[in-house]
Amino acid sequence: MKNKLFIFQFLIVLLISTGLQAQTYVKVSKSASEEFIRHAGFEVSYNKKNKIPNYTAYIHTRDKELKKVTNRTGSIFVKDPDTSAPQAANADYKRSGYDRGHLAPAGDMRWSFQAMKESFYFTNTAPQNGTLNRGEWNKLEQMVSKLAIKYDSIYVITGVIIENDGKYIGDSVKVPGFFYKALARKVNGRVVSMAYLMRNKKPAKDDTYNHSTTTVAVIESMTDSKLFVNFKKIDKGNKNFDWFNLNH
């Protein structure tokens, strides 16, 4: 009996030490290529076939947002040393017309030197329209940071939606058709959620991130995945905008 207990404990330690612990946020489509990687500030589901992430996820808190021990100055995009899978490179993005778009934003990783460094791994980037990346998407990221300050903690999942459109850059790096950001928070003993969905193109002048609200249920349908599986009960069918409102 003692030997069986020892073996069980050894296996648990082995799973944790090798990064094979169960994903805490998303169950991706069975058809999606996935390598699960846990970094200091976020977890990533990496798709080696497309050379971009399926999603990244983390909890952003008031303490992390206010800590700010570092910034992105001097940071460079490099390959992730925690995987041997094929990855994109800077050369793939050169003259491609696309930015190296963060999924887990560097702005939310200023609380840790290690987290900031890892946010610039290519396992955390995907080709993103430059106007979108530096405009409405950036405003959305800043809004999420403000939500963390107001509500103490926000669960954040950022992912891509792939289309069979044949769009690639460089050496077979897939260009996503959409980017999404799903949010969840605990309210009075329950969990509410909402999401944002943006097409990967230059937004129209009057097309702000507030016009891109949707539900987590819609994102699940489009990706054939399950989000926020870490919660037993969560409202996924409503936008719940009032629970993520900076003006309340």
TrEMBL record:
<dbReference type="InterPro" id="IPR044929">
    <property type="entry name" value="DNA/RNA_non-sp_Endonuclease_sf"/>
</dbReference>
<keyword id="KW-0540">Nuclease</keyword>
<dbReference type="InterPro" id="IPR040255">
    <property type="entry name" value="Non-specific_endonuclease"/>
</dbReference>
<dbReference type="GO" id="GO:0046872">
    <property type="term" value="F:metal ion binding"/>
</dbReference>
<dbReference type="InterPro" id="IPR044925">
    <property type="entry name" value="His-Me_finger_sf"/>
</dbReference>
<keyword id="KW-0255">Endonuclease</keyword>
<feature type="domain" description="ENPP1-3/EXOG-like endonuclease/phosphodiesterase">
    <location>
        <begin position="39"/>
        <end position="234"/>
    </location>
</feature>
<dbReference type="GO" id="GO:0016787">
    <property type="term" value="F:hydrolase activity"/>
</dbReference>
<dbReference type="InterPro" id="IPR020821">
    <property type="entry name" value="ENPP1-3/EXOG-like_nuc-like"/>
</dbReference>
<comment type="similarity">
    <text>Belongs to the DNA/RNA non-specific endonuclease family.</text>
</comment>
<dbReference type="Pfam" id="PF01223">
    <property type="entry name" value="Endonuclease_NS"/>
</dbReference>
<dbReference type="InterPro" id="IPR018524">
    <property type="entry name" value="DNA/RNA_endonuclease_AS"/>
</dbReference>
<feature type="domain" description="DNA/RNA non-specific endonuclease/pyrophosphatase/phosphodiesterase">
    <location>
        <begin position="38"/>
        <end position="237"/>
    </location>
</feature>
<dbReference type="GO" id="GO:0003676">
    <property type="term" value="F:nucleic acid binding"/>
</dbReference>
<dbReference type="GO" id="GO:0004519">
    <property type="term" value="F:endonuclease activity"/>
</dbReference>
<keyword id="KW-0460">Magnesium</keyword>
<protein>
    <submittedName>
        <fullName>Nuclease</fullName>
        <ecNumber>3.1.30.-</ecNumber>
    </submittedName>
</protein>
<keyword id="KW-0378">Hydrolase</keyword>
<keyword id="KW-0479">Metal-binding</keyword>
<dbReference type="InterPro" id="IPR001604">
    <property type="entry name" value="Endo_G_ENPP1-like_dom"/>
</dbReference>
